Amino acid sequence: MEIQYNGENLWLGIIGNLFISLSFSAAILSTLAYCMAGRNELIHTGWKRLGRIGFMLHSVGVLGIISTLFYILLSHRFEYHYAWQHSSRDLPSQYVFAAFWEGQEGSFLLWTFWHVVIGNILIWRSREWEPYVMAIFSVVQVFLASMVIGAVIDIPGIIQYKIGSNPFLLTREHPSMAGLPFLNNPDYLLKLDGRGLNPSLQNYWMTIHPPTLFLGFALTLVPYAYALAGIANKKYTEWFAPALPWTFVGIAVLGTGILMGGAWAYEALNFGGFWAWDPVENSSLVPWLTLVGGGHLMLIKKNKGTSLFVAFFLIIISFVLILYSTFLTRSGVLGDASVHSFTDLGMTGQLLMYLFFFMWLPVVLIMPSFKTRLLYSIFSLVLLLLGFYLNFNSFIKIAYFIFGLVSLGLAGYLANRYFPQDTQGESAFSREFFMFIGSLLLLISGLHLTFETSKPVINKLIGTNYAPGSIDTYNKVQAVLAILITVMMGVSQFLLYKKNILDVFWGKIMRSIMIAAGLTLLAGLVFKEFNNPQYILLCFASGFTVIANADYIIRYLTKNLKMAGASLAHIGFGMIILGAVISAGHKKFISQNVNRINLESLNPDFKNNENIMLHRGDTVPMYKYYLSYQGDTLIGNVAYYRVDYFTLKNGRLEKAFTLYPKLIMNERMGNSPEPATKHFIDKDIFTHVTYVDVEKLKRKKNNEQPQYTDPQHFTIQEKDTVFGTRFYVVFEGLQAETPLEESSPADSLFIQLKGVFSVYNVRGQILDRIYSQYEIRNNYVYTKPGIGEETGLKIELERINPKERTVEVNMAELKGGKMNDFIIMQAIIFPGINILWAGCVLMVIGIFLSVFYRLTQKTMV
Amino acid sequence: MKKSHIVLLLIIAGAVGLAFYSLQSSETYASFAEAMNEPDKTFHVVGKLNLEKEMVYNPVVDANLFTFYLIDKEGQEKKVLLYKSKPQDFEKSEQVVVIGKMQGNEFHAKDVLTKCPSKYSDAQTQQVK
């Protein structure tokens, strides 16, 4: 029997799905129309108009989907699974954005949204390039729109495949809910609350980081689309000019997005650094590297031959690598290898198609004639169908691999034939040649990262067991490349295009080399950490690039600072590398346990003496400070641990600052610590708890009564000592209390006594003085146990035996008591990290300045 | 042959060389038995916790030592010494990856990755650093 559920708003889903169909079909229309517009110059305008209409309709569809989903989230319509999964009633409304793009569907929509925004600007601005560029944009949108369809293609016996994942799926229809008892209740909605947003993501970073990153992703599509338009149009270098500002805005935005991720990790995650070479971090850094390489080659106006081919390759591969990154993070292939990949929604095949299509497209377009294009397409299609037929066995995988290599070779051959070639003979000692080498170095850096990151993929493909690389393995290779790249960045500034005279060049650059070498030498004398040659070279090279570019500004641009954008960006980049090297290289664990066992003697490989234990109230020396843990405060789901830092001044402890490292309690995703950092100009002190008693926190959260161990019975004399588990107790003796009530009846016996107990820790420091009441009134004994303020120890004076001069006491310890109140924490000093952040800011400002300058120059001409 | 061609070829050769180097030097997943055969090499061992045997973390004595028993995928159980603090919620981990070397009959780990199960579908791995 069908159950009639009450209170559901099914209209929202219907509207949402209508918008999805609109966005998908309009994107197809737009693609076809723009393709026709590009092919046929004569009936150009009609098709172009249709393409525009298609893209506008698509935009309406996308905005409609997004608004509907936002409405569902804001109005807490938990009958929709997406709202149920990513939000809850008590979610503060400023996190609605975070909830929107926490899931795969929402983040695809965010990405689609940026393409819509950029696409509309391009319709307005791209002039004669519009049909080609917009055809590419539209076909990308077809793929992206398909990611949220959630329809199943079902031809019995042949194929059954679900396309995309629909954000408007009802909670009760979601596969994970099948058969749950609440489905039998027609009024289930009244009680249903959303599962909520992961508490670790409830911060402002989650609001600003994804949109920035996805805008960066979206911007890589612009140069890709222009490059393909250039190929299809046989205007091999003319596309540079219109695409250049977009490319560099893309570099700035994507760079900002990546660095924001680093800043987020540093501020709010607990791995103790801003960069951990996590697969997800890498897979967005790699396209940035290639885009930077490609962007620089686009600066060479009359680029020719190999360098032109590399320019195309880098620009195309940047977008392809964005797709590859999407595949890695969303297909579930990374699995355990990454901290923050999405869960598998069963879209692996679809994501692969998306990736391969845009790798394949440039090869088709570079083919000279319609016939070869058709032949190549048919061959590819056959190969694809064969893959389905053979269930993608190892034979077909090898075939695909060979096909890929042959295609790349073919593209190289055709490029060599059709691209303008350098006939004058190139000069190796020129700015363009150095840019060429620099770009290839960036490519190598990217390839290495891709290769390391792809180990889980390689394991899946050929059945190997490679484990993800450690931070050191990455650092080793990338440091060498960073040295070469930063040196190139400094040198190229002083080279002219075309030919240079060696003596003049040396004359200009000598100053920077001398200063950088001098500073490195000085640093080597001051800091004893300067002992690793790679580290010294890296400091020198990045310092050199900063100085050389600054020198360039001083020499040539002081009168025209508007033109200094590029140099400023280079200074910024140099500072990022310098800051990263100094802060990571000089990173110092100052939290070291003062314990008896020397770990390093046990095992020289693992000198992980990085954690310190702090008991509440104890003051422990650490580095230049004295630390005191002052207890925890629970606010909502977050426990704040107050740690006071003292410094010794004139023999007295003075409080320097207080840090509150946190623990976010989270039943669902696991409790996660969040660091607290004290920022100084020259360094940061980064603190986070690595271990705390979560059970105690839970009791505190539930306001449970303190629990005691079973009382132990002792018969003792004055000055006797009793041992507890963590301390010892000395019975100091009995004191008589003067009764407050003077008017007590004379005939009744009234005695009021108290037993005095002192509690010491193992080091003999006094912790508590406990007073236990003992009264005899009208021949009855009344006792009231005393409780230690510090230790929580409970002592009851049960009986006094005057003849034996003994007392009988019951002693109970607090379970998880205050003595048990401790944290294990880590403290790390990051010196010079502000160089890195300043570098980030300078780089972004520099890039925007150069883009702005270029745009104003163009309108003036 | 043009200079740019030479550079391109050099770079391609460099890339291929780097790829080989990174596979050659890569650490691998292994079982305890394999790790035992090569005690000088660092391995990543995937396994499940043995919750019946005791886990020892006594920060008063040493905040940087935690021991537990792990059963690898082949069913072999070994004592693991982790030279770090005890990861939060460790008992709840569904799957554990330990990174380190075999020494005698004990596995000395410098790092551990835990994967926590969840009541719902999304799993999350947490790296303990």
Main features:
heterodimer; A: 861 residues; alpha+beta; 6-stranded antiparallel sheet; 52% helix; B: 129 residues; OB fold (Dihydrolipoamide Acetyltransferase, E2P); 5-stranded mixed beta barrel; 7 strands; elongated
SSE layout and pairings?
The complex is a heterodimer of chains A (861) and B (129).
Chain A: H1 11-39, H2 44-74, H3 81-86, H4 96-100, H5 104-125, H6 130-146, E1 151-155, E2 159-163, H7 188-191, H8 204-233, H9 240-268, H10 279-297, H11 305-330, H12 348-366, H13 370-389, H14 394-418, H15 431-453, H16 455-462, H17 471-493, H18 502-526, H19 533-557, H20 565-585, E3 588-589, H21 599-602, E4 612-615, E5 619-622, E6 625-635, E7 638-649, E8 652-659, E9 662-664, E10 672-674, E11 676-679, E12 683-692, H22 694-701, E13 712-716, E14 721-723, E15 727-736, E16 750-761, E17 766-777, E18 780-784, E19 786-787, E20 794-801, E21 806-812, E22 822-831, H23 833-860
Antiparallel strand pairs in A: 1-2, 3-22, 4-22, 5-6, 6-7, 7-8, 7-9, 9-10, 11-12, 12-22, 13-21, 14-15, 15-16, 16-17, 17-18, 19-20, 20-21
Helix pairs in contact in A: 1-2, 1-6, 2-5, 2-6, 5-6, 5-8, 6-8, 8-9, 8-11, 9-10, 9-23, 10-11, 10-15, 11-12, 12-14, 15-17, 17-19, 17-20, 18-19, 19-20, 20-23
Chain B: H1 3-24, E1 28-30, H2 32-37, E2 43-49, E3 66-72, E4 77-82, E5 95-103, E6 106-116, E7 124-128
Parallel strand pairs in B: 1-2, 4-6
Antiparallel strand pairs in B: 2-3, 2-5, 3-4, 5-6, 6-7
